[in-house]
RNA sequence: GCCCAGGUGGCGAAAUCGGUAGACGCAAGGGACUUAAAAUCCCUCGGCUUUGGCCAUGCCGGUUCGAGUCCGGCCCUGGGCACCA
């Protein structure tokens, strides 16, 4: 009971001992029998870059806190970990260091696995896999062929960034200020034939499915996905070419403004533009300039808006009037029809373009109750109103006009009502080496032929050492020279590999049955959906949309039951904020990373985890601070000391408690209550940890020679603290648990419940406001009713000076909280 | 450019519902203990103030008895934009 008995808190030895015990007992192997309720807790698996970074530590500390909490709540928990192991950095590293990408990747995995294990995360390591192994990606190839058979895979031309010096395709990230990052050459756009997955066939389901996620997903992410899918109702309208042959198709959400269309704008890659350029050198030069803009939407949308007339004329579908066709550098070939009708009076971008090039502006909608504007417009009017200058449609409100004008165009055979999506099909071809080979063979006679199932997997050769960025598969006849599976003649194997988003689109399902002899087996249906998914907000759209898409594909090829419970992969989503340093994202390119290894070496895993969970709520950005770590470390020291100085198994509580002991016990149970409510769904770990710190502060004040009842409550408090702490700092919690003489595994010990009786208090302190300003405080019985409170307050002597010269007009009583006296 | 967030003391933050703004922690200052230091413990800690109070949650306005919280407009910072993962 003296401080001499207290051994030093040395996290390094303590943590490795505890971890060894966990491992020997295989404590965190997911059991998944039907005897209990399952909980699948998944953190986004990492790319094995070589070093764990703070974002990982945060992500996995959050996930483990949730998994451990659920385990203590009695659930059968599955919490796996693996590696998103294909990708560009491996090729870059191989080029730089003269290694094979496979070797670099496997070395990194070995190192990072050690780092993760040092953190004491309660993973079922028996399920670990890396996506770059044939055992994993073979099923991806298998699914690709199924999708090909179902017509959900196809080829089409699409644009890539081409580095003319390195003779290779560049990722958007590799284009810096319009130039290739290695060569410095100005990039070009190049159209090549690529493989696509028909995600647009699922657009409506991906959109409506968001409604079922409303409870478990952040509104922010749902909104981003909704906007990304971008369903819009409108009309397809055909403008006949003045020459009489052919039409230009456009999509518009504003058919009501059709009579205000004064020109058409088409994409630089539009076939008409290309055709016109053949006879017009200046137009060709303009298109050539457009070819040197990188393909990313951000680049296209932020460049100076420019256009050039094509000399082509179309006829207005209703009036027959001639309209000029312009090429505009901001019209995207990949969206809609690659052409838009321009209504400068009612679209701000069209307005600016028309002003710049002196094109006519025709007002056709005016706000209800206003006159047709005379003089020069200052800006486009994009709101609703009634139609003008629109012939027989004049006077209609514009919503009615949408339907009427669409019908008129349809009657003329020049259009129809239609739904358009912003979502485009998913281009999965990569002209890269380090990825899953696309299992197709190009035969000059039979066309594209899938690799027969018996020949799967198409194994990616791993012996290459890269000396230039070009994919070695292109130059390896052993890989690409194959007979056609259909006719047996000479054919060429596809050398494109898959987008790495494909691997991460179904790994969550494979974790349920990592050794299955098929892509998935019946275990998937039991464990899925993931009950809690945790990862960075930066994945809010792409990864999370692709994974939702794949889940539906898995269902539709019969690998998941179509029972309505398996339509979505992730029941609940927690998007963690980024770990920032100096206000910006920690990243290698910015050189502002903080290595978590140093933190763990110095303070131990418990401190690292506790600090990172305490510093900010999970969904918020976390601004890094070295100094604040000390605080978490000191706190653990204080808890350690307190428990060791107590040094006994807590005795049972006596039947009656002194007032002092009751007050302390109330604090203990308030803490249990606060921690629990911050764990259940809210995941405000910072507030939960703060509550534990407060409890510890209160327990430290209990004198060593206290009465027996007080010491019994102290023991209850310490025992509770070990339980409450274990999701955040599991190693020290184990040691405290043992020191308090507790039996059984802390990891599976039942989470404590707050005793409602202990929470009761006989009085409450009310705040007294006058006109909303805090003036006095007053203690009243907890069960006092509003009427008696009002009477007591109005008669309360110290209040009178605040009411001098005023007449009371109203008294607002909020029981248990405050009284507001409204006086004049 | 488009879509989505965030902005509270010197710093990270707290405040389930509209009800005491700043819990908890960091940093700082003062003190105790010590031969000394470290560690530990105790106290102070938003600003102004005539010590009555007044002002404060990015800025401007609104709703309300009462707004960090709700509504409208703006400013700044961060994330995503389909080949970084």
From TrEMBL:
Residues 423-624 form the Aminoacyl-tRNA synthetase class Ia domain. A motif ('HIGH' region) lies at residues 46-56. It catalyses: tRNA(Leu) + L-leucine + ATP = L-leucyl-tRNA(Leu) + AMP + diphosphate. GO terms for molecular function: aminoacyl-tRNA deacylase activity; ATP binding; leucine-tRNA ligase activity. It is found in: Cytoplasm. One of its GO terms (biological process) is leucyl-tRNA aminoacylation. Residues 226-408 form the Leucyl-tRNA synthetase editing domain. Residues 43-175 form the Methionyl/Leucyl tRNA synthetase domain. PROSITE patterns: AA_TRNA_LIGASE_I (PS00178). Gene3D superfamilies: 3.10.20.590, HUPs (3.40.50.620), Isoleucyl-tRNA Synthetase, Domain 1 (1.10.730.10). GO terms for cellular component: cytosol. Signal peptide: none annotated. It is an enzyme of class 6 (ligase). Keywords: Aminoacyl-tRNA synthetase, ATP-binding, Cytoplasm, Ligase, Nucleotide-binding, Protein biosynthesis. InterPro entries: aa-tRNA-synth_I_CS (IPR001412), aa-tRNA-synth_Ia (IPR002300), Leu-tRNA-ligase (IPR002302), Leu_tRNA-synth_edit (IPR025709), M/V/L/I-tRNA-synth_anticd-bd (IPR013155), Methionyl/Leucyl_tRNA_Synth (IPR015413), Rossmann-like_a/b/a_fold (IPR014729), tRNAsynth_Ia_anticodon-bd (IPR009080). ATP binds at residue 588. Residues 663-785 form the Methionyl/Valyl/Leucyl/Isoleucyl-tRNA synthetase anticodon-binding domain. SUPFAM superfamilies: Anticodon-binding domain of a subclass of class I aminoacyl-tRNA synthetases, Nucleotidylyl transferase, ValRS/IleRS/LeuRS editing domain. Its EC number is 6.1.1.4. A motif ('KMSKS' region) lies at residues 585-589. Its main location: cytoplasm. Belongs to the class-I aminoacyl-tRNA synthetase family. PANTHER family: LEUCINE--TRNA LIGASE, MITOCHONDRIAL, LEUCYL-TRNA SYNTHETASE. This is Leucine--tRNA ligase. It comes from Acidithiobacillus sulfuriphilus. The gene is leuS.
């Amino acid at each position: 009971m003296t401080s001499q008995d207290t051994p030093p808190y040395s996290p390094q030895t303590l943590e490795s001992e505890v971890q060894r015990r966990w491992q020997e007992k295989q404590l965190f192997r997911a059991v998944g029998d039907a005897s209990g309720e399952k909980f699948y807790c998944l953190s986004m698996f990492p790319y094995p870059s070589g070093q764990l970074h703070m974002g990982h530590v945060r992500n996995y500390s959050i996930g483990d806190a949730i998994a451990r909490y659920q385990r203590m709540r009695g659930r059968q928990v599955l919490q796996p970990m693996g590696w998103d192991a294909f990708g560009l950095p491996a090729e870059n590293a191989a080029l730089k260091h003269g290694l094979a990408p496979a070797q670099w990747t496997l070395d990194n995995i070995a190192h990072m696995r050690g780092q993760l294990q040092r953190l004491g995360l309660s993973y079922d390591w028996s399920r670990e896999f890396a996506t770059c192994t044939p055992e994993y990606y073979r099923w991806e190839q298998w699914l690709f062929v199924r999708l090909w058979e179902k017509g959900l895979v196809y080829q089409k031309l699409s644009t890539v960034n081409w580095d003319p010096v390195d003779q290779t395709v560049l990722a958007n990230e590799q284009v810096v200020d319009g130039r290739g990052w290695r060569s410095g050459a100005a990039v070009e756009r190049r159209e090549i034939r690529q493989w696509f997955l028909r995600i647009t066939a699922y657009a409506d389901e991906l959109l409506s499915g968001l409604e079922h996620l409303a409870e478990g997903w952040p509104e922010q992410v749902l909104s981003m996905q909704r906007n990304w899918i971008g369903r819009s109702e409108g009309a397809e309208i055909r403008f006949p070419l003045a020459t009489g042959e052919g039409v230009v198709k456009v999509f518009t959400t504003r058919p009501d403004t059709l009579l205000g269309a004064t020109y058409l704008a088409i994409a630089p890659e539009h076939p008409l533009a290309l055709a016109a350029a053949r006879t017009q050198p200046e137009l060709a030069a303009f298109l050539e300039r457009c070819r040197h803009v990188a393909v990313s939407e951000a680049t296209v949308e932020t460049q100076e808006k420019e256009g050039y007339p094509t000399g082509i004329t179309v006829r207005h579908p209703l009036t027959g009037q001639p309209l000029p066709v312009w090429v505009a550098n901001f019209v995207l070939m990949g969206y809609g029809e690659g052409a838009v009708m321009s209504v400068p009076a009612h679209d701000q971008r069209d307005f600016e373009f028309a002003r710049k090039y002196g094109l006519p502006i025709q007002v056709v909608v005016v706000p209800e109750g206003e006159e047709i504007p005379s003089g020069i417009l200052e800006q486009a009017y994009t709101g609703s109103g009634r139609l003008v200058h629109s012939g027989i449609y004049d006077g209609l409100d514009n919503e009615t006009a949408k339907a009427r004008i669409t019908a008129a165009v349809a009657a003329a055979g020049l259009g129809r009502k239609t739904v358009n999506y912003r979502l485009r099909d998913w281009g999965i071809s990569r002209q890269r080496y380090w990825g899953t080979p696309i299992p197709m063979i190009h035969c000059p006679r039979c066309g594209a032929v899938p690799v027969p199932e018996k020949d799967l997997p198409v194994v990616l050769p791993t012996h290459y050492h890269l000396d230039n960025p070009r994919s070695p598969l292109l130059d390896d006849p052993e890989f690409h020279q194959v007979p056609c599976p259909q006719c047996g003649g000479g054919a060429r194997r596809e050398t494109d590999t898959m987008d790495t988003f494909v691997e991460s689109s179904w790994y969550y399902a494979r974790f349920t049955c990592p050794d299955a002899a098929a892509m998935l087996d019946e275990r998937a249906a039991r464990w899925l959906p993931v009950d809690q998914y945790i990862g960075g907000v930066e994945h809010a759209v792409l990864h999370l949309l692709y994974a939702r898409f794949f889940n539906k594909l898995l269902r539709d090829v019969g690998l998941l039951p179509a029972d309505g419970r398996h339509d979505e992969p992730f029941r609940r989503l927690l998007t963690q904020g980024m770990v920032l340093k100096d206000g910006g994202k920690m990243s290698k390119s910015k050189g502002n990373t903080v290595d978590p290894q140093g933190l763990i070496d110095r303070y131990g895993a418990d401190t690292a985890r506790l600090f990172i969970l305490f510093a900010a709520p999970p969904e918020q950005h976390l601004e890094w601070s070295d100094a604040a770590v000390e605080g978490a470390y000191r706190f653990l020291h204080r808890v350690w000391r307190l428990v060791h100085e107590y040094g006994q198994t807590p005795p049972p509580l006596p039947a009656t408690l002194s007032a002092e002991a009751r007050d302390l016990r109330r604090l203990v149970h308030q803490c249990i209550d606060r921690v629990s409510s911050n764990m259940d769904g809210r995941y405000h770990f910072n507030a939960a940890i703060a509550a534990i710190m407060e409890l510890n502060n209160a327990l430290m004040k209990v004198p060593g020679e206290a009465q027996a009842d007080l010491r019994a409550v102290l023991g209850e408090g310490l025992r509770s603290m070990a339980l409450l702490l274990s999701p955040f700092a599991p190693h020290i919690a184990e040691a405290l648990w043992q020191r308090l003489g507790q039996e059984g595994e802390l990891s599976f010990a039942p989470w404590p419940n707050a005793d409602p009786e202990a929470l009761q208090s006989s009085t409450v302190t009310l705040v007294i406001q006058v006109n909303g300003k805090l003036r006095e405080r007053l203690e009243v019985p907890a069960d006092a009713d509003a009427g008696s409170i009002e009477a007591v307050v109005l008669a309360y002597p110290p209040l009178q000076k605040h009411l001098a010269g005023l007449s009371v007009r109203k008294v607002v009583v909020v029981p248990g909280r405050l009284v507001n006296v409204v006086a004049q």
